[in-house]
């Protein structure tokens, strides 16, 4: 489950990175497109202004040329009229004065028209420049607003991603801590159970050993007591028998001494030999038995 959680977290982070990358790439494309459109609009406006200026210059040049041609034509006509007519000065004044007046009026009208055209063109140019400035400023403001909105959105997304990552990390830390606590509790329970089982086994073994030792000691004590009783009884019986035999031998000796006076000397020696033989035989048997029993008791103790 932990590995699945980590894998899902990694996939979520990768998807978030992809989405962020796509979002950033879209933002960059929008900015590039807006910049390119602004540059194209500015270039078009500059070209239009240049074309208008060229047209105005051409119109002014044409008007000047027309005025010069008219003036030249009027001067030529006046000169021709003056040369062709040899009348008096009054005729010259009558003809020249209106011509001059017409020329002056025409020139004034043409100058006024040129001034009006220039003013109109300048107004148009100023209006176009103002429109261009307004368009550029609006586009720049729109771009700035879009960039600010994008930055705010990016900051919000980053904050949300950071909060999600922090929550995921906190959840992972809590899960790991809970797992560690559960593992520690299970290990402690297992250790306590093993210690209890070992203590019970040791207690049972100690009880069994104590019981066995006590039983063995009781049996050994009973066996030793039985052996001591048997040895004591045997020794006592043997001592009593030996005393009885000694008394019998004494009685026999007394009888021999009594019979010594009544029987021959050979029979006395025979009886004395038998007395000493039986006496030493029983004494040696008693000594060996008592000494072996003493050694056995010391070895058992």
UniProtKB/TrEMBL annotation:
Alphabetically ordered keywords of this record: Membrane, Transmembrane, Transmembrane helix
Residue spans crossing the bilayer: 30-54, 61-85, 91-117, 124-150, 156-182, 189-212, 218-241, 248-269, 275-297
Designated name of the protein: Uncharacterized protein
Natural source organism: Dreissena polymorpha
